[in-house]
Amino acid sequence: MAQISVNNLTFYYDGSFDNIFENVSFSIDTDWKLGFIGRNGKGKTTFLNLLLGKYAYKGSIDTNTHFDYFPYLVNEHQMQLPIAEFMDELKADCEQWRVICELGKLEESAEILYRPYKTLSHGERTKVLLAILFSGDNDFLLIDEPTNHLDKEAREIVKKYLASKKGFILVSHDRDLLDACIDHCLVLNRNSIEVQNGNFSVW
């Protein structure tokens, strides 16, 4: 178990008069299952991008852990290919046997690795990208709306799968998913973020 310590984080977009975050400080453990709670457009995705190092900011984010993000961006060229041919472009050092193991936990056949990505359903795409995401060791995972566009059956499978995992921040509007999968909440206030024990209903 490691820690992620955020200290006096301040961030604003160029040209904006208002800070998105102002002197935000908190610590989380990397084996927690965190739900990110807050209204739309208030900075959840921005904060995930700060963890990923995409923007400059004031303050510090201290950790020795590696972050990975769902959903992976699949480009037009990759859409024509089976995901087995480009999974290591999405996640470095991705091992196919591990992905197949994760697909089994998602009640999905390894056969979908060998079909052109563009032919996969929303559910199949979500499952295979989650399988790649969780195929690594010791990554802290940033999971953004994993049940979007899924039918009820696929949503239940993803919920059960995530409930068995740890070491992530989950952004979702699906309260049932959050209640089933998280043990801590990151609560996004107007300019700050606070950490609370418990799932969405406890919050």
Overall description:
The chain has 203 residues and is of the alpha/beta class. Helix content is 28%, strand content 26%. The protein has helices spanning 44-51, 76-79, 87-90, 96-105, 122-133, 152-163, 175-181; strands at residues 3-11, 21-29, 33-37, 58-62, 66-70, 139-144, 168-171, 184-188, 193-197. The chain has a six-stranded mixed β-sheet with strand order 5-6-7-3-8-9, sandwiched between helices. Strands 2-1-4 form a three-stranded antiparallel β-sheet, with no helix packed on it. The relative contact order is 0.20. The model has no long low-confidence stretch (mean pLDDT 92).
Summarize, please:
It contains seven helices and nine strands; from the N terminus they run βββαββααααβαβαββ. It is an alpha/beta fold and 203 residues long. The two termini are 24 Å apart.
Q: How many DSSP-defined strands?
A: 9
**Residue windows where pLDDT falls under 50 for at least 5 positions:** none
| Structural Rg | 17 Å
SSE series: EEEHEEHHHHEHEHEE
Distance between the termini: 24 Å
Classify the helix fraction into a percent range. Answer: 25-40%
Global structural class: alpha/beta
Total helical segments: 7
Kindly estimate the percentage of residues that lie in beta strands according to DSSP: 25-35%
Characterize the largest beta sheet: strand count, sense, and whether it forms a barrel: 6 strands, mixed
Mean pLDDT: 92
- Give the overall shape: globular
Q: Strand order, biggest sheet?
A: 5-6-7-3-8-9
